[in-house]
Amino acid sequence: MGIENTNTHQSQPHPANQKQASHPDSKAPDAHHLISVQKTPSKGLGIFAEENIPRGTRVIAEPLLLSLDGGSEDPNNILRAFEKLSNKEKELYLQFHGFSCQLRKKGVERYIGKTWSRLSSLQKKVISIYDANGFDVGVFYLASRINHSCIPNIHYEFNESLQKGTYHAVRDIEKGEELYLSYINGGNRTREQRQPKLDQWGFKCNCPACEDSEGGRMRDKRRKEMFELDQKLAMQSQYGTEMNSMEALKTATKLASIQLAEGLLNRELRVSYHDAAKYSLELRNVKMALLWAEKELEHERICLGEDHPVYKGTFERVKMLEGVAESSAPFDPSIIQWF
Known about the structure:
This is TPR domain protein. By secondary structure, the chain is mainly alpha-helical.
């Protein structure tokens, strides 16, 4: 299911401005005291900033409410995971809004061997709640209230060392502003390309990147350009014949500049920085590669935190590059393999 299977974050009514703590077992430091769950005009519940939240803040760090032992596509795994919950955890889980699209229902029928209509009401509810609220590893309690935007201000990642999902502010968030995730890997995709992915949650996005306005159309034009650049880099990464290293470097840096201008500060930007470092190394420009790798590292610090294994790996790579940049030894082409 992967990162794209996140959540629709609607549930039973809660009083507006009600503070809602994360799952009671959560012990990782976070700043969930800076947010509250509130009603939204058209999206059910959402999470809002009670105070200004600085860029890089770990807003939420919480363990899974429902954790899957196997693949999330198999509804049998979801039902088994639900049965393992305590009565209190089942009560919390069943608060969520559920939605399963027709394609998903057909998939459930193939796995279980009976039509959707023949499932019990509880089975349908448990599966549809997972489909509407599930991340790549299960369902989180508090974070499942975060709504979608194609220009998110929050980045989600599962931290294996903490065994918690972490949610970081990728830019400064003002008091009263709603927090948003991107449910899909659609940063470099057009509105037409993104919507079929969002259909599995049963809604049409009306964020600034999707609205039918002059501004929305301009954003979509830039997304089309980003998609074309992204595809060129993907082909180059896979086959190495799309362009030479200088052209690839220019493509990666151009993509990064558009992503920054569009406020797309999540994983896609990290990939652009990584590509720029890689192609700088192919050009044997170690100092330039180090500059891009440092940008990648800082981006991961903002999105993941310094305790995330991915950040630690990039940190070590940057340290090795620093050593190469300071050395007077001839360039060793094998260091390109670090990227």
